[in-house]
Structure prediction request, 265 residues.
Amino acid sequence: MCRWAAYLGKPIFLEDLVTAPQHSLLVQSRAAEECKTAINGDGFGLAWYHARPEPGLYRDVFPAWSDPNLKALCRQVKAHAFLAHVRASTGTAISRNNCHPFALGRWSFMHNGQVGGFERFRKRADMMIDDALYGERKGATDSEALFLIAAGAGLEADPVAAMAFAVGELEALARAEGQGPHMRFAAALTDGARLHAFRYASDGRAPTLYHRWSARRGGWAVVSEPPADGEEGWVAQESGSVLIFEGESLRKAAFAPRRQGALVA
Prediction:
């Protein structure tokens, strides 16, 4: 499993969530408290939005705690939206192309969880990626496949429906050819203007997610674990839901995987 943090609101320095707090994402890379593995040292990444519609992207294969460039970048870069991720591989190689977040045009995406037995049907999963987008498949992770399948399923028109389709297709493959748990999915998706946070699991054990509005920062944060011990106001996200953040507003909707208009059984 992995740990991540996302932000949308008035511009803040990335360090406010990623490196500075008592239980920051950097700390969670070697001392996570709410996941199976405390160590998340198989690479890290950032996607951030500032003056251009496309996100900046910085990823590397080193453990986050060992890279001084990460601290320096987070101290200097200010953004109104960003995704940050520390990785614990569930089987694929430690490489830059397998590090989150993944970016496509103005969209960026990151995931904590797994598609059970993905290596058994990775070729079939890759074949679900739209031909026009297959050149964007740089790595070998289930997470990147989910993102690109969603991108070809109408991400621009309806991000929630597109992601539900991608999750449904890969969960169905995991049920048919893979192994349990078939799908664990805690993910963030943003275009720099809206932030979507998804939480779902086929076995009822979805990875943790929390969200909080900060009047001091003027923005929303969504995290795998709260970044400061004892900090009030963090709300646990329910499994089977998607939260949509835009400006100061928050909208909640049910989230379930779908295949060709039908719920996955």
